[in-house]
Amino acid sequence: MADTPPATRTSPRVLCIAGSPRRHGNSEQLVDACVRGVAAEGGTPTKLVVVEYKIKPCQGCNACSLTGECVIRDRMNEVYPMLDEADAIVVGSPVFFATVPAVLKALYDRCQPYWARTHVLGEPPRTPRRPGALLLVRGGGDPFGFQAAVYTTKSVFAVLGLDYTRELKEEGPDSPSDMGRHPEALARAEEVGRSIVRSAKGE
Asked: Could you give the 3-state DSSP secondary structure of residue 153?
């Protein structure tokens, strides 16, 4: 999908995805800080709270390999245009059993049509590629850490035409009130927002 080169945009559109099933928890607070950074750098942020969309899981029917479109009719149909129109995408998520929670994984899996269009139907990959970033937070204690969440997200970014340009991994905060004791983490998330705008502008 051809698009205007990022360097020509004065206010890049940045989709900031809050992937937790719990509202206003630590990962969403990181997303909110990122949104502030995007706005401060002159970008146009859109915040998407995944749990509010009640996205159904992929049913593995492979219909998208015939048409390039998903046959499930739910609010994911509102999400696809957001993914398409964004000049950059940031995902914020807690780590559940070393990966992303089910509500976010449902969104990830429903990106299968993008894979089908390129790898089955022969459509050219999206150009130009866009920057993507991941904000992760976990309480700690799981010996498998962050890597499964990182690799899962990188896989989805690849089919969306996103370069995995930045990541933030915060360990320690657990209850929703914990992030208030980690202002440095919020500052780092805000800087991710600023930096991804610069990348989307081609700076």
From this structure: helix
pLDDT at residue number 1: 35
Q: Find the CATH number of the domain harbouring 41.
A: 3.40.50.360
- Over residues 153-199, the pLDDT tens digits come to 999 999 999 999 999 999 987 777 777 788 999 999 999 999 999 99
Give the whole-angstrom CA distance, residue 58 versus residue 112.
8
In angstroms, rounded to a whole number, what is the distance separating the alpha carbons of residues 91 and 15? 8
In a domain, 67, yes or no: yes
Q: How many whole angstroms separate alpha carbon 2 and alpha carbon 125?
A: 9
Handedness of CA 76, 80, 82, 86 (dihedral sign): positive
Q: Decide if 196 is inside a domain.
A: yes
Q: What is the DSSP letter of 41?
A: T
Report the Cα 89 to chain-centroid distance in Å. Answer: 5
Which tokens go with 136?
């992760």
Q: Is residue 126 part of a domain?
A: yes
Q: Which two structure tokens, joined as six digits, stand for 103?
A: 């509500």
The 10s digit of each residue's pLDDT in 26-44 is 999 999 999 999 999 999 9
Instruction: Give the position of tokens 């914020």.
Output: 92
Evaluate if residue 5 carries a pLDDT over 60.
Answer: no
